[in-house]
Each structure stands twice: as structure tokens, then as C-alpha cells.
TrEMBL record:
Group of enzyme by EC: transferase
Domain O-methyltransferase C-terminal: from-to ranges: 139-218
EC number annotated for this UniProt entry: 2.1.1.116
Protein name: Putative 3'-hydroxy-N-methyl-(S)-coclaurine 4'-O-methyltransferase
Length: 236
């Protein structure tokens, strides 16, 4: 009987944790629900769909950024978000290892439907409306570009023992594959960072490993928690 009660308690605890995690995801979606419209508005104003259509075949990141006249690093992050939303998709070719962008029925609709374009542009919320809120709720490292992050982490490393020192970082880690429950939120936050900072961004695991090792740490471990952020442990 006691074993059954213990199993029930454990099951309830697991269910509560699962529900709390799902609730956090939904709250983030409500807070940043404007981001989808803002990014689609950006894509329309850049003319991404039209550029791919005129190109007449799958288009690489460098080809697209050259055609649009915009920074390939920023464009890559925008396209990553739009692909996750299934507005565009990528395909691999026999000649190159990196992906090429192609249209979907959704992007074709956005490029040909005048009323849709007008409504999205006129009704998209301004990211700047949330500027004051964001400044009060931001973190540290994601506010900065890689070079600044490396310098900050170097200063942290100077303040800890060289033999067994650790630096704990609590930041989002964007999943590169699959569909992790917090990936959607991480991509939205990355778009917000692009709008509110000069060089800030949410990072993938590879990007975190890069700045941490460049700062002089031997490596890092990442522990997922029931939150958008992860616990990243950089060690000497």
C-alpha cells in the first residue's frame, strides 16, 4: 500500500512539473506574441520571398544576403526563425554542404497577396513598445556580441581559482535540431535581441562553446531545467 502511495505521489509530482513547464512556454508566447508579426513584417519589407522567386531556383544564404543587401549573420537568424515557422524551408544540394532556401505555399501567399502584406505591415506591433520591460528583465551575456562576451568571461575567469574554478551561466541555449519545447521561445527571444541590442543574440550550444573556450576555459557542461534558460557551467 505504501509503495502504491509513493508511486502516486511521484506521478503527481512529475505531472505538476510537466504542467508548470508547459505553462512557462505558454506565458513566454503570450509575452512575445508580437514577435511573429514583427519578423514576418521584416521579411515582407526585405522582399525575401520575391528575391527567391525571381532567382528561379534554391538560394543560398550568401546569394540571398547579397541580393537583399543585408548582413548575412542577421539574415541567417531571421531565416532560422521563419523556417521554424514553416514560412520557408531549406533543401540540400549535391554540390554544396550548406542548405539552400526555397519557398513554401505560405511564403508564396505572402508574396502575392497584397491585402495580406498590407495587413501584416500595418498591424504588426512595434518591438520598441516592449523596450522598457525588456531592459528590466534582461540577462547579461546575451546582451552582447561574441567579442564582448569573451571579454566578460575572461574577467570572470580571472576572479576564480585556476585549478578547479567554475563560472555558472544561466542563459538560453537554442536547440539546433529537433523541436525541443523551449526552442520556439528561444528563437523568439533571439529576434527580440536583434531588435533591442546592437550585437546581442541567443546562442546555440556551439556558439556558447566557442565564446567560453575563447575566454580561456577548458570547456563547459549544460544542464536543462524547467525553464527557457539552461545552467551552463564553464570550467577551468
Amino acid at each position: 500500500m505504501e509503495e502504491i502511495q509513493s508511486e502516486v505521489i511521484t506521478w503527481k509530482k512529475d505531472e505538476n512539473e510537466k504542467e508548470e513547464a508547459e505553462a512557462q512556454v505558454e506565458i513566454w508566447k503570450y509575452i512575445f506574441g508580437f514577435a511573429d508579426q514583427a519578423v514576418v513584417k521584416c521579411a515582407i519589407e526585405l522582399g525575401i520571398a520575391e528575391a527567391i522567386e525571381k532567382h528561379g531556383k534554391p538560394m543560398s544564404l550568401l546569394e540571398l544576403s547579397s541580393t537583399l543587401g543585408c548582413n548575412p549573420s542577421y539574415l541567417n537568424r531571421i531565416m532560422r526563425f521563419l523556417i521554424h515557422r514553416k514560412i520557408f524551408k531549406t533543401i540540400s544540394t549535391n554540390h554544396e554542404n550548406y542548405p539552400y532556401y526555397v519557398q513554401t505555399p505560405l511564403s508564396l501567399t505572402s508574396s502575392t497577396t497584397g491585402d495580406l502584406k498590407t495587413n501584416l505591415v500595418e498591424k504588426s506591433y512595434s518591438l520598441h513598445r516592449f523596450n522598457n520591460w525588456w531592459k528590466k528583465n534582461n540577462r547579461i551575456l546575451h546582451d552582447w556580441g561574441d567579442e564582448e562576451c569573451i571579454q566578460i568571461l575572461k574577467k570572470c575567469k580571472e576572479a576564480i581559482p585556476n585549478d578547479n574554478g567554475r563560472v555558472i551561466i544561466v542563459e538560453a541555449v537554442i536547440e539546433e535540431g529537433g523541436n525541443h519545447k523551449y526552442k520556439d521561445v528561444g528563437l523568439v527571444l533571439d529576434m527580440v535581441m536583434m531588435a533591442h541590442t546592437n550585437y546581442g543574440k541567443e546562442r546555440t550550444l556551439k556558439e556558447w562553446e566557442y565564446v567560453i573556450k575563447m575566454a580561456g576555459f577548458k570547456g563547459c557542461t549544460v544542464k536543462s531545467i524547467n525553464a527557457v534558460q539552461c545552467v551552463i557551467l564553464a570550467f577551468c
